[in-house]
Amino acid sequence: MCGIVGYLGERDAYPILIKGLSRLEYRGYDSAGVALINGNGNLVIYKSKGKVADLDNLVKGKDLSGSTGIAHTRWATHGEPNDVNAHPHFSESGNLALIHNGIIENYKSLRTELSSHGYHFHSSTDTEAIVQLIEYIMDSHHITLEEAVPLALGNLVGAYALVIVNKKDPDSLIAARKGSPLLIGVGENEFFVGSDATPIVEYTDKVVYLDDEQIAYMRKGKEMVITDINKVKKTPVVKKLNMSLSQIEKGGFPHFMLKEIFEQPSALETSMTGRLYEKESGVKLTGIIDNKERILAARRFIICACGTSWHAGLIGKYILEELTRKPVEVEYSSEFRYRKPVLFPDDVVIAISQSGETADTLAAIQLAKESGCFLFGICNVVGSSIPRTTDTGIYTHVGPEIGVASTKAFTAQVATLIQLAIAIAELDGREPELRREIISELVKIPSKIAKILEQDQMIADYSKTFTYARNFIYLGRGYNYPVALEGALKLKEISYIHAEGYPAAEMKHGPIALIDEEMPVVVIAPRRGNYEKIVSNIQEVKARKGKVIAIVTEGDTEVKSMSDFYIEIPDTIDCLTPLLTVIPLQLFSYHIAIAKGRDVDQPRNLAKSVTVE
Ligand code: M6R
User: Closest residue (by CA) to atom 14 of ligand 1?
Assistant: First the structure.
């Protein structure tokens, strides 16, 4: 969602800020803005609806000097995307400018109150209330900005990551967070602020992750000071950033999404390194070994996630139940948090999230924590909020995922859940044969994915014939039912074609009414699991003249002969097929979207990490 960049130091701030905004574009946004304290000591603000490039065009020829500044990409929540609602917002006097991620729930009452004191509002945003409130507190209490910020934050209800510049104090920046991520890069006599590490990685690998309700006071030539909102000092913990510049660049691919699809063989290998031991036929996960008693005593596992991570969670349910014989429930975090789930202290809640910042999943964790459940996180972004709020967990370690449509994060989540299930089954000696078989097959998955990727051109050529389609149905059974959901989600989010995923046997209970010669039906039919059953489902589609696009195992003849088009995958055991069947579906969605001229890396209305509920 919204993106934040800040700079304070000796260099020109603008080039750092604008480049930082481009690095944050992947998060999804609809307007952008920048505020600088320029060489003349003036606070200048430029904002524009549209892309970062539009902002960069707008400022051509303007005075962009100054080595203190903040910049923002906004994903509209309160008020439509336009120049006025774009951040930064400024205070009544024009001395303060502020950028903000998150939502302030009591903004209406704050605006009413501040208006009664003569403050004027220009935008429809919640953010403007924050900057006006800070100035009001400064003026009414006759205190400095440093003193006013904690008081103002104490009056806010909601979530924020924010950065403030003050024209009257050009050598300082103040940043704060609650519920929305924020980190500070520490360089030589300079500071970089980011809502994630992508705008920072180019300049320093030393970062401080702010905790909730912490405020960072940065001043040129001085050490950073961190306090909580009660003004109690905290020692900044400087961590080494686990990211490289090449990971956040396209590396010769036209889009991040395609790069990330092609990265899957190596990403999965990295993700399994140091965990999967083929020779010993075991999986070593510190989070499981160190919490053996708690995990073995689990009454059940409850998986909480959203979107693609939820689909991975469904596959996790199947494998965890097969290997551990414990009950597993899979919950949409957004539903779980707002009903009254029955939770027990001996439940283990597994939160899955690529970004580690999804607001609903964070809230689900909080709810489970209150019931005393053991909390296990599966995340990709190191140092993000979910790993910091769970008891233990596993990083998927596939490097930054920039494309909005999740690809390598999904396969890594599935591989991680499979390893988790093996590790738990290992604890009480269950299913030794099956575990051995899975491990010996899992190590072969990266090279099998590489083989599927060789069909990219063929898939691209065929995809073009589907630009006419307005609807798609995806069908799968067993382990490949969640893959059908994931394939449909991929297609709709980047091509804007309506698509539905179904367990194949459910088709007869309704969706079959949709099938005619215009309806493309993607059927995931590897020669494992319920193969014969899915063959019957394909016949039902063909009998109604539906167009069948099948994902089949190499050497298959039966399904191939019934299909209009097929894509082959190498054979593997049933529970690992999702790691292969999803690959052609990712490529298929990508190429249809490209053929339709869509912006695949930044599809409309979508944000990479959904930090508001
Ligand atoms: O960062 P998370 O894994 O928690 O994100 C969850 C969903 O927002 C995410 O998977 C979303 O569905 C993707 N755009 C799917 O491609």
Answer: 405
Burial 39-69 (b: 16+ CB within 10 A, else e): eeeebbbbbbbbbbeebbebbeeeebebbbb
Q: Which residues of the chain have pLDDT under 50?
A: none
Phi, psi of 219 (to 5 degrees): -140, 140
CA atoms within 13 A on the CB side of 510: 6
**Ligand 1 closest atom vs CA 306:** 6
Tokens found for residue 269:
């290998």
Question: Each residue of 538-556: b (16+ CB within 10 Å) or e?
Answer: bebbbeeebbbbbbbbeeb
Q: How far apart are CA 156 and CA 106, in angstroms?
A: 7
Q: What pLDDT sits at residue 372?
A: 96
Domains delineated in the chain: 2-247 (3.60.20.10), 252-443 (3.40.50.10490), 451-613 (3.40.50.10490)
User: Which DSSP symbol is given to 510?
Assistant: T
Residue 609 in contact with ligand 1 by CB distance below 6 A:
yes
Ligand 1 site, residue 354, Cβ cutoff 6 A: yes
Task: Identify residue 389 by its one-letter amino acid code.
Answer: T
For ligand 1, what atom is nearest to the CA of residue 305?
Answer: 4
13: number of Cβ within 10 Å? 28
For the Cβ of 404 lying below 6 angstroms from any atom of ligand 1, the answer is yes
3-state secondary structure of 366: helix
306 tagged catalytic: no
- Per-residue pLDDT of 324-352, as tens digits, reads 999 999 999 999 999 999 999 999 999 99
Work out which ligand 1 atom sits closest to the CA atom of 358: 4
CA 421 to CA 34: how far, in whole Å? 48
Q: Is 610 touching ligand 1 by the criterion CB < 6 Å?
A: yes
DSSP string, 415-482: HHHHHHHHHHHHHTT--HHHHHHHHHHHTTHHHHHHHHHTTHHHHHHHHGGGTT-SEEEEEE-GGGHH
Q: Which residue is closest in CA terms to ligand 1's atom 8?
A: 307
Residue-level pLDDT at 278: 82
> What atom of ligand 1 comes closest to residue 413's alpha carbon?
3
What is the pTM for the complete model shown? 0.85
**Ligand 1 centroid to 287 CA: how many Å?**
24
369 catalytic? Reply is no
Give the residue from 398, 455, 412 showing the smallest Cα distance to 591: 455
- Which among 2, 304, 306, 379 is annotated as catalytic? 2
Is the preceding omega at residue 15 within 30 degrees of 0, hence cis? no
Alpha helices in 42-96 (DSSP H): 52-58
Taking residue 528's Cβ as centre, other Cβ atoms within 10 Å add up to: 17
- Our answer on whether the CB atom of 385 is closer than 6 Å to any ligand 1 atom is no
Q: Is 601 in the pocket of ligand 1 (CB under 6 A)?
A: no
- DSSP strands (E only) in 195-274: 206-209, 214-219, 225-228, 233-234, 239-240
Distance 187 CA to ligand 1 centre (A): 32
Residue-wise pLDDT tens digits, 345-368: 999 999 999 999 999 999 999 999
What pLDDT does 365 receive?
97
d(CA 176, CA 220): 18
